[in-house]
Specification:
The structure is a homodimer of 435-residue chains.
Chain A: E1 6-12, H1 16-36, E2 39-46, E3 63-64, H2 67-72, E4 78-81, H3 88-98, E5 102-105, H4 108-125, E6 128-130, H5 141-148, E7 154-160, H6 163-175, H7 179-188, H8 197-200, H9 203-217, E8 227-228, H10 236-244, E9 247-257, E10 264-274, E11 286-293, E12 297-304, H11 308-328, E13 350-360, H12 365-375, E14 380-387, E15 393-400, E16 403-404, H13 405-417, E17 426-430
Parallel strand pairs in A: 1-2, 1-4, 2-3, 4-5, 5-6, 8-10, 10-17
Antiparallel strand pairs in A: 7-9, 7-11, 9-10, 11-12, 13-15, 13-16, 13-17, 14-15
Helix pairs in contact in A: 1-11, 3-4, 4-9, 6-7, 12-13
Chain lengths: 435, 435
């Protein structure tokens, strides 16, 4: 196909990201065309409403309401799927791939839910699927993992992958306000969706973790096989304790691989991260990823994880890779063959823990709690008492020595059953990673 | 050439990096071969001394003392030039490129001195030259700039690119010791070369800055056209002042481009970097680069900048790209066409400044200094006096409001001529970059 002198690009979905791609592709076009030696033509775009006003000027003749018409247009070489969701986006993606086209996508939910089907369709019909924008916006982390760090095996990857959660936690810490107040403000400012659950409950981070785990280990870990916890239960008491002891609280995706037995584990949870770690100082809507390779050691990547411009930067980088593929057969390095990659059982997912409990303020309580944790074979490293907002109650904050997910869950269950414990304890992980 | 079933790799120079590449390529070989669908064969290596003991086992039949024999061996597809220096390394590189081979290099000095000649030779004979390992070791910054951030123009790139300087400055700050003591210790520990001048005077950083500027702007800026200053004059007084005022001192490469007039400027100097910047907290031998793109905003990359393993990781990533090129015609995105890229005159290189002066401790000195700076049209923002080690003297530390390189040099010249100023003032830049 190296005789192609013009590459036609179709964009399915001209929302925030779609308009950003259109805008930045137009302004970078001359420079990209001179590097690539080919004309880039924004051939067609699909929208939901033809009459809606948009920030970018798109001639009416190039608009349609039918994304499948864009995806299957014989003139279109590269299809950008920027619709979002997993239904219509899946149809559009598969339709284009089955025609051997190259698809560029920013859709982490789609990839996470239908990754194997999408890559199989690409392989079967000679098409390709690019997804740099699906994780960490404009940070070229997909390319780094797949190409730049190709010499490495990855024992530990952890990262802040959701800007909304990082923004909320940063403001809670900085301003001393509670989660509900900051969340409401974040919604008002457009930093959180009207339905915030996908972000704050950790599912968006889990989708991205699934993609990183696939790239690093060649195995698709469904979100149901992960440990996924959100940030809604975090209070000022937790943030204060963390800061006093040299930690920031960050919602992290943590992907660990034990090379001795091959076991993989993927988890998403609020984490007490030592302030000495670079990522503990990555604030507001920024994302950051720490990648620990067995050859290179730790490398860290930081940048805007979402938003029109950062996402457009990644989509355009994929479009350029797709053009190189069409012009010169520049296929990306294949994602690793699916390996035998067992998931680690909970007793081999190890770490230190933080527990916050509201308890009755009466004699004998500490003994009962210490006995319950000892029964679950969890060893307490520190215990401090704080005033509770509840009348006749006290707040206890415990940290543990190294333990594991199975033992700590048993501990939480035992503690929850104690009459002196007034509600389910809050469990956080302490992220003193070796990496 | 897609019928190649084995790729033969030749390594010129089996020193620290060469042995690392051999070792890690052997251990990652099965995984790389399965991804690439081709056998990788370490065909031949050149050494200076055949009898020397090495940490990696290389069969004697595959060793030679003639690097040109490796570079021109008809069986060798990919030549890794790991000799260092700019004489023999240049010969070897050009010999291989003239035969249309692909060369992988970690040699920043060679690229900086002979970049145009090397790329011309590659173009003329259909070969390719890869150089990920030449800047920031294992951090895939070359790939990020060339591919991942291809949608962007780069108004500002700055980074810590020399691990030796960062190590010395970190230890001076942490331990309160002087530059000579820490340098001596760094030499003893092998973190600094016996001849440290290339590192501590900023030339190694300047070589790397030249490569980054080329990638970002398509123009080769020779080191003689840069501002290059080293770290040897920095004392505890400077580090204390910086820390008290919320700064760390880092040796930075700073590459700025003004898109209004196209002017480029490249400089290397110790910089007071606000502690709120991620790179201010990148310590010890770590490297870090902040890349400010007009689309993506700021992205930051951190990792080990040198050493056997980090460098090997980058060399192997280039080898994999070179294999993709040989197998599928996967040429990397061409480096931008050389643009009309004027160098900015000194009066348009702007910033705030830090000046430390030893002065006679007598009446009227402050007035003389204030008059001299005012004459050069530099406005003083703060002035503090500190005890001097010199008898009858005082140390003055000034910071300025925004000024420019031309005015501040005139200021330093004027101050140096004053009888009350006891030696040439130390000038540092304050790096409160907008990025």
């Amino acid at each position: 196909m190296s005789q192609l002198s013009t590459i036609n690009i179709g964009i399915c979905g001209l929302g925030t990201v779609g308009q950003g791609v259109w805008k930045h592709l137009e302004s970078a076009r001359a420079s990209l065309e001179s590097k690539l030696g080919v004309k880039l033509h924004l051939h067609r775009a699909s929208v939901r409403d033809l009459k809606k006003k948009r920030a970018v000027r798109v001639p009416a003749t190039r608009l349609t309401t039918d994304p499948l018409a864009v995806a299957t247009d014989p003139a279109v070489h590269i299809v950008c799927e920027l619709i979002g969701g997993t239904t219509l986006a899946r149809e559009v993606t598969l339709a284009a791939l089955r025609l051997g086209k190259t698809v560029v996508s920013a859709n982490k939910a789609l990839l996470c839910a239908h990754g194997p089907e999408i890559f199989a369709a690409a392989r079967a019909h000679g098409g390709h699927f690019f997804f740099e924008a699906s994780v960490a916006g404009g940070i070229p982390i997909i390319k780094a993992l797949r190409e730049g760090l190709v010499a490495n095996r990855f024992g530990l990857i952890y990262g802040i992958l959701n800007g909304t959660c990082n923004y909320i936690l940063t403001r809670m810490e900085r301003e001393g306000l509670g989660y509900p107040a900051i969340l409401a403000d974040a919604k008002r400012l457009g930093y959180a969706e009207a339905d915030e659950s996908l972000d704050v409950e950790g599912w968006d981070t889990a989708h991205k973790a699934s993609i990183l785990a696939y790239l690093a280990h060649g195995a698709w870990v469904p979100t149901r096989a992960m440990l996924v916890e959100g940030i809604a239960a975090i209070t000022q008491a937790d943030l204060h304790f963390a800061r006093e002891h040299g930690y920031a609280i960050k919602l992290l995706a943590v992907i660990t691989r034990d090379f001795a037995n091959g076991e993989l584990f993927v988890r998403v949870h609020p984490t007490l991260l030592p302030l000495t770690k670079v990522l503990a100082n990555v604030n507001d809507v920024q994302n950051g990823i720490s990648v620990n390779g067995d050859v290179v050691g730790e490398t860290v990547y930081i940048g805007r994880g979402a938003g029109q411009d950062a996402t457009s930067s990644a989509v355009i980088s994929d479009i350029v890779d797709a053009v190189l593929l069409l012009r010169r057969g520049n296929a990306p390095l294949p994602v690793p063959v699916r390996q035998h990659c067992p998931l680690a059982p909970l007793e081999r997912v190890r770490g230190r823990y933080y527990l916050r409990l509201d308890v009755k303020d009466e004699p004998g309580v500490l003994a009962k709690i210490a006995t319950a944790t000892a029964h679950a074979r969890v060893s307490i490293a520190s215990m401090v008492q704080r005033p509770s907002a509840r009348r006749g109650a006290a707040t206890l904050i415990l940290t543990t020595h190294e333990s594991n997910e199975k033992a700590i869950r048993a501990t939480v269950a035992r503690l929850t059953r104690l009459a002196c414990v007034l509600e389910k304890p809050l469990l956080l992980r302490i992220g003193d990673f070796a990496g």
